[in-house]
């Protein structure tokens, strides 16, 4: 199958000239990795390495996905409402975006394409603002420079949930020859393409500014901000300017550079993303460091605490956001009836405890903000519950749901306000976090990602999950497993009792609850060739929680090595 696919591409009359020498230079391993499968939709759409091949992101795999989506749009009479299209700073993002618009036009579908790079949350906003049938975002989010990707959105500005995505995937898979698709449309069809920009920006900025809970707070703080060469640069700086905050941009990382030349990594989950920001912060004695990923849906946070900068995890910054938002809503008498917060099954318990303290219920979803967006849409329709906050452990949150995806510009504004508010009280955000530990227990949350690339890696990831199911652990590191949840088999085990796990789409996730109040979860990444291990470890103190985390991580290493 690999040789057949490879030969088809190499000899196809429509193959772009730049791809042929790349294909000819491939060794056996590279050839296998590029053609052993067709690139698939995961938790955040389609994402992969740039280059020729059926398992790569290129003009042909993008066209195949877009033609399948076009067939779905026309089958559901969505062509008149149209599709909003956005893109980030990566290699080929703009080219892919405008090619998508041409291909949609060829299928007599309207599109609204941003004039230049924009954040993913603004694309989500544009879908609803323009009353579109859906949206396309060209981005690989926080992945390295070698990647690009493709996200699809529904009419609510939410990434396609599995039942809708499967319909599109069926249309995509029905296309046999991706290289035969062209995006040649007539001049008349070209008129179906509208280029958008500042008008949508203005509406988005107004909505972002509306999230402020204490707009008159004394803004006596300095913020070092980095967009990591991505789409957050203009929106975040503009919002700060209008709100009255002093923002010190990391100039070297403000250019939309697809090679991310001035950062070791564009991922705020990794320490390298903060290197230059930390230098700026020390030079300016900044109170706060905020770092966004390239498509501006994730935000990392650094806080000046006792003369040193402390980088918070996504779980920690999310918990601080919840505390600030809920305390202010309650104080101002603005807490809605039946308030609800959403997070995922791999998000820390701390945020749920903080929310509960203010009478806010928490509903869990699978990993992927589309599931939170789905919940938002449900309650917007039924009015059973009222949205207060949503977040994931992976550094993404949503303050107000005029966007239906993670929204870093919103998060940047809210964290700045919280920082300024607590500074007036003589506290920083680490002090706030420590007070949450005092009230609700101390947690250390971490994620360990086991990178396993290629066909062999994909097999190994499946093997790890299969072995854990076959030989389910009754204890981890000497601590009893009191409950386990299997989101693929949809079962809960507590001792000898087995019950049904309901309310979730089937997903290859395992979660183990330990006797000491900690839990550990395992899942394959939906966006990278990795198996991820999540730890939410409860301790008597920070030191105890950390020591237990190290212990449990080693125990899991030993467990999967068997």
From TrEMBL:
Residues 39-176, 204-301, 324-439 form the Alpha-D-phosphohexomutase alpha/beta/alpha domain. It catalyses: alpha-D-glucose 1-phosphate = alpha-D-glucose 6-phosphate. GO terms for molecular function: magnesium ion binding; phosphoglucomutase activity; phosphopentomutase activity. Residues 493-535 form the Alpha-D-phosphohexomutase C-terminal domain. Its cofactor is Mg(2+). GO terms for biological process: carbohydrate metabolic process; purine ribonucleoside salvage. It comes from Holdemanella porci. Pathway: Lipid metabolism; Glycolipid metabolism; diglucosyl-diacylglycerol biosynthesis. Keywords: Isomerase, Magnesium, Metal-binding, Phosphoprotein. It is an enzyme of class 5 (isomerase). It comes from the Bacteria. It holds the Pfam family PGM_PMM_IV. Belongs to the phosphohexose mutase family. Its EC number is 5.4.2.2. InterPro entries: A-D-PHexomutase_a/b/a-I (IPR005844), A-D-PHexomutase_a/b/a-I/II/III (IPR016055), A-D-PHexomutase_a/b/a-II (IPR005845), A-D-PHexomutase_a/b/a-III (IPR005846), A-D-PHexomutase_C (IPR005843), A-D-PHexomutase_C_sf (IPR036900), A-D-PHexomutase_CS (IPR016066), Alpha-D-phosphohexomutase_SF (IPR005841). This is Phosphoglucomutase. The keyword Phosphoprotein applies. Transmembrane segments: none annotated. The keyword Transport does not apply. SUPFAM superfamilies: Phosphoglucomutase, C-terminal domain, Phosphoglucomutase, first 3 domains.
